[in-house]
Amino acid sequence: MPAQTAWLGDPAQWTRKPNESLQNPDGLLTHLHYYRPVRTAYEVECVKLATLASVAGHQAAEQSFRGGASEYEILISFLTATGRTENELPYPAIIAKNEHGATLHYQHYDRSADASHSLLIDAACDCNGYASDITRTYSYDDAEFAALIARLDSAQQRIAEAVVPGKAFADLHALAHREIATILQDADIVHMTPDEQLELDVTSTFFPHDTCVLQNGSNFAMCQRM
Count H helices, E strands: the chain? Predict the structure, then answer.
């Protein structure tokens, strides 16, 4: 029945235009947005199982990277460890070695075994339609870059500790930018104080993504591209 039907999403992707009253109705969108942050015990368990499957793949991918494998070979390692095909992943895996990590949403799987300097991997599995989402960055033997990764990981843990009931998302996002500004100054990458960087929005160049927070279970993720 038309009265029980709604069209959601970007109208540009629709093959035909429904009645305007059926397009992204405010009442339904408000209802969906309100309940989206709430997860049942079943949903949380599905995400946990998806994460466990993904961890096995990430561990295999790191080992493959440290063995000098190509991007394509690292992808195969991830798929083999998780028992998935590419079509069974919730989103196309990003396997970016060296300078390829600077390309947003890089999707080419280079088959040449070039020298390994760094690896950016964004890959995951799902369980019953619920997906995990794990991004990791590794340094092969560059101590300075490895130190940057360690600093960012420590910053992430500090922000995770700040995730408590009632804490505003905007405050967590601001904290993430301040942590990054401090790292950039300490690493002599940006010759400005954290306050100066934040005032001029310098950190957005290095951290264009949002800070992602799931407070059901006090989980925290700082999406990043280093």
Answer: 7, 7
Question: Residue 91 is encoded by which pair of tokens?
Answer: 């989103």
Identify any residues that bridge with 7 across adjacent strands, giving them in sequence order: 23
**Nearest alpha carbon to residue 52 among 137, 154, 130, 138:** 130
pLDDT along the chain (226 residues), means of 10: 76 83 88 84 94 96 96 98 96 96 92 91 95 94 94 93 88 94 96 97 89 46 40
Residue extents of the structural domains in the chain: 20-141, 142-226
Architecture of domain 20-141: Alpha-Beta Complex (3.90)
For residue 216, give the 3-state DSSP assignment: coil
- CB-based contacts of 201, cutoff 8 Å, min separation 6: none
Of 158, 189, 150, 188, the C-alpha closest to 175 is 158
At residue 166, what is the residue type?
G
The closest alpha carbon to 75, from 67, 85, 66, belongs to: 85
pLDDT at site 167 = 87
Helices (H), 83-166: 143-161
How far is residue 69's CA from residue 53's CA, in Å, rounded to a whole number?
Answer: 22
